[in-house]
Amino acid sequence: MKNKRKIIYLAGFLFSIPVALTSYINSSLLEQFINPLFVSAIYIISSLLTIFGLFKMPKILTRHGNKFTIILFSFISALSFVLMALGGKSYIVVSMFVVNFIANNFIFASLDIFLEDLTGKSRVGRLRGLYLTIINSAWVIAQLISGSIIAKSSFSGIYLLSALFTLLVPLVIWLALKNFQDPEYKKVSVWKTVKFFVKNKNISKIYFLNLILNFFFAWMVIYTPIYLHDYIGLPWDKIGIIFTIMLLPFVLLQFSFGKMSDRVGERKLLRFGFLTSAIFTFLIPFITEPKIFLFALVLFMTRVGAATIEVMCDSYFFKVVDEEDVEAISFFRNTRPVSYIIAPLVAIVVLALVPSFKFIFPALSVILLFGFFIAGRIKDVK
User: Fold this and answer.
1) Which one of 120, 197, 335, 362 is CB 3.0 to 4.6 Å from 211, fit for a cystine?
2) Where do the TM regions start and end (predicted)?
3) Which residue segment(s) compose the domain that 318 sits in?
């Protein structure tokens, strides 16, 4: 059991590298081929298709199994990375971005199912914290090398390297999990899944807290690189350094906080996370000069809060569901694509109302405060 968990940790690490390498430059790549005003629309379309796909995931798993599913979508993801690098035409790059977005969400959901199958209920916070620490270390490594890769080979080098790492995932899964037995996935209608979340008030609150967190991630992924590069004037290699420092809390804190949640529960740590992220997100526009240290420090503190929230949400949710509850897991994981629908729409409204692009960050901090108040109303699961 322990060795199989290590395989999932390795697969999660390997796959997180290409996702991390490309997440913060996808919007900039798309801007090279389409009007920047349409970038938000592409994210929205990708997210809608992903949500539809995740609702179909139980049928796919029942028919083909989780191992086949993750191998298939890993190859699809790798191919889409290659075509994004070499396609050269707007219709190829944009369509492959959509395919890549959908495939990557399926892969992360499949990894969740593997890990849930190999995790007991007594140490969920600890094991989820360790898993998040491992996959987020990939984000730190990716940001450390991304700036120099872009400087040497433009965006194409990033996407080709991402394809290579993605191909390692099906290789690891195929070789190391040959004897994996799928659980009997529960067949529950979408409507019943929604009713399950509505009926279980604490689960509903965790869903909304996870949605706010992913809203924060989506907002930051789409708009922070644009702000730092286009408005502050920082080059990509310096932005890579900032993002490397920014992401360190996901590596330094999540395992310890995951263990802590098993002892004291999640509520207080969730409130701490939302309040910290809200305060330091509010401070971003007050840095008006291209000062690497200040931006790194403030963004680091926003991720101290986000890292805390992420492990608390995962710990809470996976303490109350089983690996057979594919619909519930898929529904919980749809917060990422849902956030990529909501965040651009809200940003369009905010940008229409505020006098400057930089004010999108105080607006985001207000949204984070809603999470602070919701977190105060959940009941701990120990």
Assistant:
1) 335
2) 7-25, 37-55, 67-86, 92-115, 127-151, 157-177, 206-227, 239-257, 269-287, 293-317, 338-354, 360-378
3) 2-177+184-375
